[in-house]
Amino acid sequence: MTKEKIYHPCLDENGSPVLIKHPSSSTGPESWLAPSALAVASRTDSPSLPGALNGLAFSTDFSVPVEDPQPWLELAPNIVPGEPDFVMPPGYRATSGCVVIEPDRRVWVVYPSNEFGGVRCTFPKGRLEPILSLAQNAAKETWEESGLYVEPVEFLCDIVRTHVVTRFYCARRLSGSPALAGWESQAVGLAPFPQLSTLINRVYDLRVLDFLKDRIEAVAARC
């Protein structure tokens, strides 16, 4: 019997369907409300999301055209107070992303479609758009990859990769829903900090945890 092909509900940047070879499965509704549980919302099934999490509703009304960076000049901060200058070696390119923290101290992660680039689980991030600041770009990439509209609130770290420097911000969720994640993510998860080291499989992303572990309590209190 031929296995049914499963596609992401969103088309890719070229308008083509995205076949998901090994789709994730959503966890039950109780996982979203338990601070010690890993919760997963797959984009290829029908996740049972609560109406709200930590007092903030999930909303499918928020929408921004993913191909247009212009709205993020108004929707996200130009810089985060106190963030250091961005230093990038010659020949490198810049990317930025967000580590989105809930008041229950869980952290949002994304599962790239078909483990693109060998990445099983990571934080939302992407290449810097020319007209955006690093903070604005981080919010935009988080929206595209996780379906969450967030506010970067604090500089977290700069991670030097092979020919790439990635600036990460701690961020808080303002609106959106993991049910809105774009084609680059086959699922979106919410994980307790101790589980992140078992979910994330790339060394550069694991380095983020070293910075996050000393900040998560303080940032969660602000979110």
Give an overview of the whole structure:
There is one protein chain. The protein has a 4-stranded mixed sheet, with helices on both faces. Strands 1-9-5 form a 3-stranded antiparallel sheet. Strands 2-3 form a two-stranded antiparallel sheet. It is 21% helix and 27% strand. It is globular. It has 223 residues and is of the alpha+beta class. The chain is built from 6 helices and 9 strands; from the N terminus they run αβββαβββαβββααα. The protein has one domain (29-80, 93-222): Nucleoside Triphosphate Pyrophosphohydrolase (Alpha-Beta Complex), CATH 3.90.79.10. The mean pLDDT is 94. A hairpin with a 3-residue loop joins strand 7 (148-160) and strand 8 (164-176).
At a glance:
The chain has 223 residues and is of the alpha+beta class.
- How many individual domains? 1
**CATH class designation:** Alpha Beta
Low-confidence stretches: none
What is the makeup of the main sheet?
Answer: 4 strands, mixed
Q: What's the N-to-C terminus distance? A: 49 Å
Give the rounded overall mean pLDDT. Answer: 94
Q: Enter the CATH topology name.
A: Nucleoside Triphosphate Pyrophosphohydrolase
- The helix-and-strand class reads alpha+beta
